[in-house]
Specification:
alpha/beta; 16 helices; about 500 residues
C-alpha cells in the first residue's frame, strides 16, 4: 500500500512539474499569437516621413570591424557606392582588428581619401567595451547629426540613405531601422533555416511592435541614429552583450520614437557553420537577459502605458523560454512513466498546450514566410520541421546563455566569423577565424541519445502520438551536435564546407 502511495505521489509531482513548464512555454506561445495579430492588423499602416528635408543633412557612416579579412573590402566598396553627396558624408572605419584587416582598411581609407571622401580610420589597441566601445569612440569625432551603423558583413544598396533620412524630419524620431536581408540564404540547410528564424523576428515582431506603438529594438546594424538621441539616452553602455537592445530601451523610455522600415532591406551574411551560429545565438540570448535584469525594473517604474510595459516584459524575458524548453526535455521521460491520463485531461490540458506551444511556433514562422515571399512561400513549407527541430536543438546552447546572465557570469563579446560567402564553397582548413571550441556538443549528443531512448520507450508503451514530437527533439539535438563536431573534423582534413553541405 505504501509503495502504491509513493508511486502515486511521485506521479503527481512529475505531472505538476511537467504541466508547470508547459504552462510557462504556453505563455510565450500566446504572446506569439499576439504578435501575429498585431502584425496582421497593422502591416498595411504606412510608414511615411512627415516631410522631406529641404537640404540633405550630414551623415556619419560608422563601420565597426574586428578581424574582418574576408569582408572588409566588400563593406567599404558598398559604402563607396552610397548615393549621397560626398560633402555631407563622413565615413568612420572603427577598427579593433589584430590581423591583416588593419592593412586592408588603411589601404582602402587612402583610396577613399584620394577620391575626395571625408573618411577617418580609427584603430584602437584595446577592445574596451568591444563594439559599444568602438561606437562610443567614433561618436566623439562624428560630424553628422545622423549616424548610419553597418556591421562588416552588410551590403547596403546605394539609395538606402535617401530612402530613410527624411523620417528624421520628425524631431521626435531617434532611430530608423531597416530590415536585414540574407546574401547566402540558399547556401545550405542551416542558412535556409536561419533565414526563416530571422524573418520571423525581423518581419513579424519588429513590424508588429513598431506599427502598434510598442517598444522595439535597434538590431545592432543597418540603422540610422540621431546623434542627440544617443547622447540624451546616456550613450553606449558596455555592461551587456546587447548594447543595441540596451540603448534602444533607454532611448524609448526617454520619449524618443523609433521607425521600422520592413520594405527597406539591407542584405547580410548568415553564419555558415553551426559553431558560429551557436556563438551568435549565445551572445544574443545572454545579452538580452542581461538587459532584462538591468532595465525591466526601470520599465515598470516609468510612466508608460500598461500595454507597452507588458510587451516589454514579454520581449525582454522571452529567452527564458529556452530554459523552460531544456527543463521540458528533462521531464519528458519521467512524465511518460507517470500515471496515464484520461480523455478529459487530454482535452483540458494537452490540447490547449499543444495549440499554445507547437502550433503557435509553426504559425509564427509560416506567416513570416507568407509575407516575406508572397508568391513562393509554399516552396519552403518543407523547412518547417527542420526549423522547429533546430530551435529545439539550440535550447541547451541558449539556456546556457540565460543561466550565465542570471548568475552574472561575465564573458567577452565573441564575434561571429564571416567568410565572405554567398554561394561559393570555402575551404574550412584555410579559414582564418574559427568559432570557440567547447564541450557543449557532447552535452547535446547526450540529449540526442536520451531522446532516442524516449522514442523507443514511447513506441514500446504504445504512446504513438508522442513519437513524432520526440523524433523532432531527437533530430534537432543530433543535427546540432553533429554539425558542431563536423566543422572541426573538416578543418582537420575531412572535407570542405560546400553549398550542398547541410
Amino acid at each position: 500500500m505504501s509503495g502504491s502511495l509513493d508511486a502515486m505521489f511521485q506521479s503527481v509531482i512529475w505531472t505538476v512539474c511537467y504541466v508547470s513548464v508547459l504552462v510557462g512555454l504556453s505563455a510565450y506561445g500566446i504572446h506569439r499569437y499576439c504578435i501575429i495579430y498585431l502584425f496582421l492588423k497593422n502591416r498595411k499602416r504606412p510608414a511615411q516621413p512627415v516631410s522631406a528635408f529641404k537640404e540633405l543633412p550630414a551623415v556619419t557612416v560608422q563601420l565597426p570591424v574586428f578581424n574582418e579579412f574576408y569582408v572588409i573590402r566588400r563593406l567599404i566598396e558598398s559604402v563607396r557606392q552610397l548615393d549621397y553627396p560626398k560633402n555631407l558624408l563622413q565615413i568612420q572605419i572603427l577598427d579593433d582588428s589584430t590581423d591583416e584587416t588593419c592593412q586592408i582598411a588603411e589601404a582602402e581609407t587612402a583610396k577613399l581619401l584620394e577620391e575626395g571622401f571625408d573618411v577617418e580610420y580609427l584603430h584602437r589597441d584595446n577592445r574596451e567595451g568591444f563594439k559599444a566601445g568602438a561606437l562610443a569612440a567614433g561618436m566623439e569625432k562624428a560630424k553628422g547629426e545622423y549616424i548610419f551603423i553597418l556591421d562588416a558583413d552588410f551590403v547596403p544598396a546605394p539609395d538606402v540613405l535617401k530612402k530613410c533620412i527624411d523620417f528624421f524630419t520628425d524631431e521626435k524620431v531617434g532611430m530608423v531601422q531597416m530590415r536585414w536581408g540574407h546574401l547566402n540564404r540558399n547556401y545550405s540547410l542551416l542558412t535556409k533555416v536561419q533565414a526563416m528564424f530571422l524573418d520571423g523576428h525581423l518581419l513579424l515582431e519588429q513590424t508588429a511592435r513598431s506599427r502598434s506603438g510598442r517598444f522595439f529594438n535597434f538590431n545592432g546594424t543597418a540603422g540610422i541614429w540621431r546623434k542627440s538621441c544617443i547622447e540624451d539616452a546616456d550613450g553606449w553602455h558596455y555592461d551587456t552583450l546587447t548594447e543595441d537592445l540596451d540603448l534602444s530601451y533607454r532611448a524609448q523610455m526617454r520619449g524618443w520614437k523609433f521607425v521600422y522600415l520592413p520594405d527597406v532591406i539591407v542584405p547580410a551574411e548568415l553564419p555558415v557553420d553551426m559553431n558560429g551560429f551557436k556563438s551568435q545565438q549565445h551572445r544574443w540570448t545572454k545579452g538580452s537577459i542581461q538587459t532584462c535584469k538591468k532595465l525591466l525594473p526601470e520599465v515598470w517604474k516609468a510612466k508608460l502605458p500598461l500595454l507597452i510595459k507588458l510587451e516589454a516584459t514579454a520581449h525582454l524575458t522571452s529567452n527564458f523560454g529556452y530554459l523552460l524548453l531544456v527543463m521540458l526535455c528533462v521531464l519528458i521521460l519521467p512524465q511518460s512513466f507517470a500515471a496515464k491520463h484520461g480523455a478529459m485531461y487530454s482535452l483540458l490540458v494537452d490540447l490547449p498546450i499543444f495549440f499554445a506551444t507547437s502550433v503557435s511556433i509553426a504559425l509564427f514562422y509560416l506567416v513570416g514566410q507568407m509575407h516575406q515571399n508572397p508568391r513562393g512561400w509554399w516552396r519552403d513549407i518543407w523547412l518547417m520541421p527542420f526549423t522547429l527541430a533546430l530551435a529545439t536543438g539550440m535550447s541547451v546552447n541558449n539556456a546556457r546563455g540565460v543561466i550565465e546572465a542570471v548568475l552574472n557570469r561575465q564573458s567577452e563579446f565573441t564575434r561571429t566569423p564571416k567568410y565572405g560567402i554567398e554561394m561559393k564553397p570555402v575551404n574550412v582548413r584555410r579559414v582564418r577565424y574559427m568559432p570557440i571550441k567547447s564541450l557543449l556538443p557532447f552535452i547535446e549528443l547526450l540529449f540526442a541519445l536520451y531522446f532516442g531512448y524516449c522514442v523507443w520507450n514511447s513506441a514500446a508503451l504504445g504512446q504513438w502520438i508522442s513519437v513524432p514530437f520526440l523524433l523532432m527533439f531527437f533530430g534537432g539535438f543530433t543535427y546540432v551536435a553533429w554539425k558542431s563536431v563536423s566543422f572541426w573534423l573538416q578543418q582537420a582534413g575531412f572535407g570542405f564546407m560546400t553549398r550542398s553541405n547541410a
